[in-house]
DNA sequence: AATTCCAGAGAACAGTTGTTAACTGATGAC
DNA sequence: GTCATCAGTTAACAACTGTTCTCTGGAATT
């Protein structure tokens, strides 16, 4: 089924990935709106003009980064809000999953948190669209739970957005605590756990 | 009590304010990390070197903007979570207050949302410090409520941070809906109201 | 084997950037 | 009234930016 790419296309994708990686590294200490095209090509080790073979602009590269950073996250979302286990167990599992994701892809998390409200409109729009998709997936997952009986579609989506935003806040907190001592990371875990617990309690009494 | 500033100091403060205003306007469509010193002086109508009479760098200017944008917000916070009225009324009042603030100071709100996770470390740090102060104020305000009886200090602070983050999320949503039809703004109001209501419910059953 | 394609290189462009130094002239202190 | 202060100016600097056009050499197609 899968067609082996020609040498040419393979090399091109390799260079493209090098652009994405270099950009992500450079964005650790600046925003996308100040990322220069020459800066990226210099980091990759190619001529400035090579950039145009892959992207129209740095904004275009940013949109590609959004896909890389969030596209692979969709499968994980289903696991995060899966319905197995009691609520306390589910909360702990969700937080743990977030913490591990931040450990594994800190640059991705930083990029999304930074550019969600950043200075480049197309990138903001791309992130927004993906987060809306996330919320919709969370919503359908929530709907499967017996606890969701009697909930309106609007209320389910409202709760889903609350979960997604809370997920991002928590991820950002873990990111800030990345190089901090384990004690600080534990503090974040405790905070996030209790916030999620409070939301879960509110969810349980929503229909009262 | 107040000393009338000399002509010199008055003029200097006037120019300084012009810098802040011009920067805030320029930051509507870019991030601070890409804001150039010359760009700002050009907008103000002054020589590039005049910049150094007021700020060491654009990062320094950013920190000043944080103070302007968040410093004046502290009195408002107390009103937002004040204990008068029933909970439904308090929720409505808080959302209304946020909506009005976004209408009055959209550029300030945009700046804070953008630079909270932005590419300039000192500015991020300044915002973080102010938000921690906010959370502490909210916490002492929450502690006054009879509903807070039996709550630990940690739990109160946890809830306070939840409120502060939720406040920022809501403000950001109103900002995106600024130029949208009234229908969209109403949708945001409904969403924010119900999210805050769910948190309030969770708060009410926290000690169960 | 001959030909087309195309990722990347090279050079040059006008325009921008932050920062330095030495200046001007009104204001403030005495 | 004299002199020091200091907000803002002017000129110049090397370094950098995005974008254009032309070229090259190996892969793909025929």
TrEMBL record, chains A, B:
One of its GO terms (molecular function) is DNA binding. The keyword 4Fe-4S does not apply. Keywords: DNA-binding. SUPFAM superfamilies: Homeodomain-like (SSF46689). Pfam families: TetR_N. The keyword Mitochondrion does not apply. Residues 36-55 bind DNA. This is TetR family transcriptional regulator. The lineage of its organism: Bacteria, Bacillati, Actinomycetota, Actinomycetes, Kitasatosporales.
């Amino acid at each position: 089924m899968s067609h082996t790419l020609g040498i040419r296309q393979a090399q091109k994708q390799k260079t493209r990935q090098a652009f994405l990686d270099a950009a992500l590294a450079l964005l650790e200490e600046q925003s996308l709106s100040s990322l220069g095209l020459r800066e990226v090509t210099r980091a990759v080790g190619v001529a400035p003009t090579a950039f145009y073979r892959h992207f129209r602009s740095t904004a275009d590269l940013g949109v590609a980064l959004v896909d890389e950073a969030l596209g692979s996250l969709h499968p994980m979302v289903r696991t995060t809000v899966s319905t197995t286990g009691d609520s306390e167990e589910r909360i702990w599992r969700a937080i743990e999953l977030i913490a591990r994701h931040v450990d594994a892809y800190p640059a991705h998390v930083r990029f999304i948190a930074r550019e969600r409200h950043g200075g480049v409109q197309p990138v903001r729009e791309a992130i927004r669209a993906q987060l809306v998709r996330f919320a919709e997936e969370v919503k359908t997952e929530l709907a499967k739970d017996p606890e969701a009986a009697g909930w309106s579609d609007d209320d389910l989506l409202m709760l889903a957005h609350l979960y997604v935003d809370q997920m991002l806040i928590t991820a950002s907190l873990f990111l800030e605590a990345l190089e901090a001592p384990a004690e600080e990371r534990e503090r974040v875990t405790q905070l996030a756990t209790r916030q999620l617990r409070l939301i879960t309690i509110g969810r349980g009494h929503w229909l009262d």
